[in-house]
Amino acid sequence: MNRRSVLASGALATAGAVSGCLAMFNSAGGDADDYDVGMTDSAFDPETVTVAVGDTVVWKNTSGRSHTVTAYDSGLPDGADYFASGGFEDEQAARDAWKRGAGGIVSGDTYEHAFDVAGEYEYVCIPHERQAMTGTIVVEE
Ligand SMILES: [Cu+2]
Asked: Which residues partner with 119 through β-bridges?
């Protein structure tokens, strides 16, 4: 089941009032929230999300800092597509781009990726790697 962000709609006006509840849900349940993974100053929230094959995961920068969503080359199931905010082909390209200031998700922005291969996906925020800002997406059949 695929799903689209509703950020562009009027839902944004009420998002602040209910944001305390949003993190409890993920896309697998088809809830009317507008993202699956939020971001604090130095963490993905929640760090682990479980979805079904074909689901789209939406990250939203709910902090005031810029972050990246950058998959580890070594953290993907066999046959899975690489993913990174900025649309880079691999981890090195994403890291090189970040040095030039590209690929970040600014405050309030979203990034999304559809997961078509089952397995576990490990990813990191490049600028906050030293603070262990990492996450896992578990994709189930
Ligand atoms: Cu970060």
From this structure: 139
- pLDDT per residue rounded down to tens, the chain (141 residues): 455 444 333 344 444 444 444 444 444 444 446 999 999 999 999 999 999 999 999 999 999 999 999 999 999 999 999 999 999 999 999 999 999 999 999 999 999 999 999 999 999 999 999 999 999 999 999
98 Cα to the center of ligand 1, angstroms:
12
Helices (H), 1-141: 11-22, 91-99
Residues lining ion ligand 1 (Cβ < 5 A) are 67, 125, 128, 133
In order of their start, the domains of the chain are: 11-140 (2.60.40.420)
Please give the angle made by the CA atoms of 84, 129 and 16, to the nearest 5 degrees.
70
CA of 20 to the centre of ligand 1 (A): 20
132 Cα to the center of ligand 1, angstroms: 9
Per DSSP, the chain holds a count of helices (H) and strands (E) of 2, 8
CA 1 – ligand 1 centroid, Å:
28
- 104 alpha carbon – ligand 1 mean position (Å): 9
